């Protein structure tokens, strides 16, 4: 939304001296009781107080005025606006209810009333106030915009879009409504419409760093990384210390294989926001892209120091430790990742594979079995379990795992061949031959592999007979 990162600075329309000079004049009118002939001046001054966020001075003036003319709905309405600006929503609603009782047809009162009601958690009442305002003035773009914002906050993007569209149809230069249209269209994955809405907003607000940023996010989601990078670059030309733009510029560069540019962008993001673990994690990934493994490890370490439950960082650092031959440290990280998310397939697989490479075959078998509890139909894991069992001399376990492989993937010649070899070792000749037949039928090249691995069998009558049957 527009205020997600703060609006761009808008210069004041009035000088402080001018406003406070007017406030002092108004106070003199009140003290002298000479207010009725100067109400236009007083109301203009109060409006200036609203615009310049001088709520305390404004409330003080209004309180003195309502003691004299408490029937003036405009004064109660503006007092409610001051309280809204001060986040004093109970007091605001009390004042606005008085204003509404005095003048039920005042749209400005209903608009301010909806603000207080929304902030007090009275969502239905806020919607009702805005619907009342729209029924009085169907072409009131501010009421339509405010209703759109309420609906958007409840993730009712389709109805929010309808109201924002009505607002910009009435006022084509209503930049805030164009901005929120971009946000809502992105939320429902209508990316082309989101881009058009942000572009329309930028026609009126060309120096909005957040609009260029949001447009870049949409372009990343569309996979248009070149244009996304350009959008983030424009965002940063306007606001150089916008860490989120640097971060996502790095993401765009990374996807464009501009790895060194990505590294520089991510470093800038980390400099601006060193307490963001996601930045350090992604910087680690970018370092991996250019094979800078030790710096990547340091980045993942920073991410973990900021968030001790950062599962992905433990897993990524584990992979890096494995690449650098630090197997024990890698195994420790994989175990940490598993502790954080017990049902992580990636962590269990990394652990199982590493245990196998370290020669911890029995531990590896246990890990593969745990992995299969999570993914019982994963052919590649069953195949690894079969091979690991065979290496451990657990021929029956290997044959059972190969059977599961064949069940899941009947066209796998390697599974039949592996099972055949295990059957031969156990002198289960009939089963071995049946498996060999299936393997040869699926992949004739396996005949040559078999001949090389079992040269003594190649010339045997049994094997000749098998060859003839084929």
In short:
With 470 residues, the chain is mainly α.
How would you describe this structure to a colleague?
α8 (141-153) runs antiparallel to α9 (157-170), α9 (157-170) runs antiparallel to α10 (175-187) and α21 runs antiparallel to α22 (379-391). The two termini are 70 Å apart. Among the domains are: 14-137, Tetratricopeptide repeat domain (Serine Threonine Protein Phosphatase 5, Tetratricopeptide repeat, Alpha Horseshoe); 377-470, Tetratricopeptide repeat domain (Serine Threonine Protein Phosphatase 5, Tetratricopeptide repeat), CATH 1.25.40. 42% of the residues are buried. The protein is elongated and about 125 Å long. The protein has 470 residues and is mostly helical. Mean pLDDT is 90; it is low at 2-12. It is built from 28 helices and no strands. The protein has helices at residues 16-32, 39-51, 55-66, 73-85, 89-102, 107-119, 123-136, 141-153, 157-170, 175-187, 191-204, 209-222, 225-238, 243-255, 259-272, 277-289, 293-306, 311-323, 327-340, 345-357, 361-374, 379-391, 395-408, 413-425, 429-442, 446-453, 455-458, 461-469.
């Amino acid at each position: 939304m527009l205020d997600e990162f703060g609006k761009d600075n808008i210069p004041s329309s009035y000088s402080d001296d001018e406003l406070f000079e007017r406030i002092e004049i108004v106070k003199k009118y009140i003290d002298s009781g000479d207010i009725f002939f100067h109400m236009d001046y007083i109301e203009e001054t109060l409006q200036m107080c609203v615009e310049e966020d001088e709520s305390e001075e404004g409330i003080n003036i209004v309180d003195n005025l309502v003691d004299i003319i408490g029937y003036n709905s405009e004064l109660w309405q503006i007092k409610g606006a001051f309280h809204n600006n001060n986040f004093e929503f109970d007091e605001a609603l009390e004042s606005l209810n008085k204003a509404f009782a005095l003048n039920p047809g005042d749209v400005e009162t209903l608009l301010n009333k909806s603000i207080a009601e929304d902030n007090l958690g009275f969502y239905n009442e806020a919607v009702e106030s805005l619907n009342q305002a729209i029924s009085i003035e169907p072409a009131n773009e501010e009421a339509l915009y405010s209703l759109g914002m309420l609906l958007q906050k409840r993730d009712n993007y389709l109805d929010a879009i309808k109201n924002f569209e009505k607002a910009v149809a009435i006022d084509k230069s209503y930049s805030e409504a164009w901005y929120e249209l971009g946000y809502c269209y992105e939320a429902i994955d209508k990316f082309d419409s989101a881009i058009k809405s942000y572009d329309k907003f930028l026609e009126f607000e060309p120096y909005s760093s957040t609009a260029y940023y949001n447009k870049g996010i949409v372009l990343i989601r569309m996979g248009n990384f070149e244009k996304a990078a350009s959008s983030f670059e424009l965002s940063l030309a306007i606001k150089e210390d916008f860490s989120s733009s640097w971060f996502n510029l790095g993401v765009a560069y990374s996807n464009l294989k501009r790895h060194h540019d990505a590294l520089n962008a991510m470093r800038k993001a980390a400099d601006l926001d060193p307490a963001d673990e996601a930045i350090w994690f992604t910087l680690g990934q970018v370092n991996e892209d250019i094979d800078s493994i030790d710096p990547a490890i340091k980045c993942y370490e920073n991410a973990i120091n900021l968030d001790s439950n950062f599962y992905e960082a433990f897993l990524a650092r584990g992979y890096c430790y494995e690449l650098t031959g630090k197997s024990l440290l890698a195994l420790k990280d994989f175990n940490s990742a598993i502790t954080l998310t017990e049902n992580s397939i990636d962590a269990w697989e990394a652990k199982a594979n590493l245990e196998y490479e370290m020669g911890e075959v029995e531990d590896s078998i246990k890990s593969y079995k745990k992995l299969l509890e999570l993914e019982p139909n994963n052919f590649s894991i069953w195949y690894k379990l079969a091979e690991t069992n065979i290496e451990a001399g657990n021929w029956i376990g290997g044959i059972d795992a190969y059977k599961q492989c064949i069940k899941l993937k009947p066209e796998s010649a390697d599974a039949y061949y592996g099972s055949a070899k295990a059957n031969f070792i156990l002198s289960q000749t009939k089963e071995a031959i049946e498996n060999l037949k299936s393997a040869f039928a699926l992949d004739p090249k396996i005949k040559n592999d078999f001949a090389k691995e079992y040269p003594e069998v190649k010339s045997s009558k049994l094997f000749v007979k098998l060859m003839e049957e084929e």
